[in-house]
Write the structure tokens for this entry.
Amino acid sequence: MTASVVSNGEGRQGGALLLGVRKLALALACAVAAWILFHPHPRGLAVAVAVAVPFVLCVVVVVEAAHGFRSERFRPVIGAGVVSATLAMRALFDVALAEYEALVVPALAGGLALALVLNRSLRTAGWDTLALITLLMALHCAGALALANVMLDDAAPERLLATVESKEARSGKMGGRFVTLAGGRASVVIRRRRLAVDAVLYASVDKGDTLCVDVGRGAFGLTWYALEACAPG
């Protein structure tokens, strides 16, 4: 009987410890999400930490399962999901790819692999839950791949010149600022002519101006590009 009491006490202590670890992991995940979204500096470190968070949560899940604890709550999934969404947003803000569809297969494969591990943290998880976790983790993999593709590309980008054919600013939910390039090699390489630009670039160019398009082949073979107004002359 004494041994049983001791065993139960140790079990409660272990459960409390793992619950504390889970709460800490969620808090750290939210902090990392805020870092990567609002002030990702130093950039390399911020991205590396954000990429690592779901893997750390996977380790927490595996340790919990090994000790017989499976959470009925979604803290590990919430933490991973928050970071995944913000990492994908950061990639969307910072990276322009010529072929976004090239991210689909590796992102889904990586997302499913991570989801299968994180799914073990739930006692009752159906296909709908697994699908949601896969989507969140796929966003994470897509964002990580897009950012790493540019950040690890050590080759000098090729600079192409393009003429601004027109510019347009839209308001409302589907609003934004856009420039349309005249036909040329730049539009062929990046596979589009109409491009979304930020407010600074939009204000600095006008119809007939020359736009500099820096094109990189990417560390993983995903062509990326960056726009800037060319210096006069």
